[in-house]
């Protein structure tokens, strides 16, 4: 596990964790979070839409670390060879001292502006340990609010060879928040051709 730039993270109410540690295979190996669109990288679009009450931002990345550090503190996976988003979440959970972490992917530049509010409300209502977004059609598992105490559970799951986010959630006291009618906010760009010519206002 590597903490870059910041040697110590201070306790915050909620940490935002942006996952940017993938290999970008469907982007011809390009680092998706740093692909420029509308004159700025995708990572910048996401950070700009984070709620104001986020007190700490952390980016999970395994390359181009210096570039990501221009936006926030960074953390790198413990597991080699791009083991998936859970590896990035696990590495971050070893360092985060806030009670909760808001997880978002780097390739969806329109996260709902009320994402944290809705996830937090549903987490509290259901007295759950994890809550992910449901867009009215399917679960958006990488838009989630997790209690940081889940790091023990996640560590065990990874050691057993687990990699599926959904399957890990099924082992937890997990719930979902309804974002029906906001599906456009979860559009992710897996290929360069997916990027729209104009920025939308969702």
TrEMBL record:
Cofactor(s) in the UniProt record: Mg(2+)
Function: Transfers a GMP moiety from GTP to Mo-molybdopterin (Mo-MPT) cofactor (Moco or molybdenum cofactor) to form Mo-molybdopterin guanine dinucleotide (Mo-MGD) cofactor.
Family: Belongs to the MobA family.
Residues binding GTP: 19-21, 32, 77, 107
Domain of life (superkingdom): Bacteria
PANTHER family in UniProt: MOLYBDENUM COFACTOR GUANYLYLTRANSFERASE
Assembly and binders: Monomer.
Keywords, comma-separated and alphabetical: Cytoplasm, GTP-binding, Magnesium, Metal-binding, Molybdenum cofactor biosynthesis, Nucleotide-binding, Nucleotidyltransferase, Transferase
HAMAP family: MobA
EC number: 2.7.7.77
Flavoprotein among keywords: no
Keyword Plastid appears in the UniProt entry: no
A molecular-function term among this protein's GO annotations: nucleotidyltransferase activity
Domain notes: The N-terminal domain determines nucleotide recognition and specific binding, while the C-terminal domain determines the specific binding to the target protein.
Residue positions binding Mg(2+): 107
Subcellular location: Cytoplasm
Domain MobA-like NTP transferase: 16-167
InterPro entries: MobA-like_NTP_Trfase (IPR025877), Molybde_CF_guanTrfase (IPR013482), Nucleotide-diphossugar_trans (IPR029044)
Reaction catalysed by this enzyme: Mo-molybdopterin + GTP + H(+) = Mo-molybdopterin guanine dinucleotide + diphosphate
Pfam families: NTP_transf_3
Record's protein name: Molybdenum cofactor guanylyltransferase
Gene (name only): mobA
């Amino acid at each position: 596990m590597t903490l870059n730039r910041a040697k110590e993270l201070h306790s915050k109410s909620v940490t935002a964790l942006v996952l940017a540690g993938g290999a970008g295979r469907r982007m011809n190996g390009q680092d998706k979070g740093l692909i420029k669109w509308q004159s700025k990288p995708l990572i910048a679009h996401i950070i700009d839409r984070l709620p104001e009450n986020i007190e700490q931002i952390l980016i999970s990345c395994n390359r181009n670390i210096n570039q990501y550090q221009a936006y926030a503190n960074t953390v790198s996976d413990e597991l080699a060879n791009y083991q998936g988003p859970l590896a990035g979440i696990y590495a971050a959970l070893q360092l985060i001292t806030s009670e909760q972490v808001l997880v978002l992917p780097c390739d969806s530049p329109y996260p709902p502006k009320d994402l944290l509010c809705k996830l937090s409300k549903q987490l509290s209502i259901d007295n759950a340990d994890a809550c992910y977004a449901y867009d009215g059609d399917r679960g958006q598992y990488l838009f989630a609010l997790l209690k940081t105490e889940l790091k023990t559970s996640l560590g065990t799951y990874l050691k057993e060879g687990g990699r599926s986010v959904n399957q890990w959630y099924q082992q937890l006291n997990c719930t979902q928040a309804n974002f029906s009618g906001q599906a456009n906010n979860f559009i992710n760009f897996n290929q360069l051709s997916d990027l729209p010519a104009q920025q939308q206002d969702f």
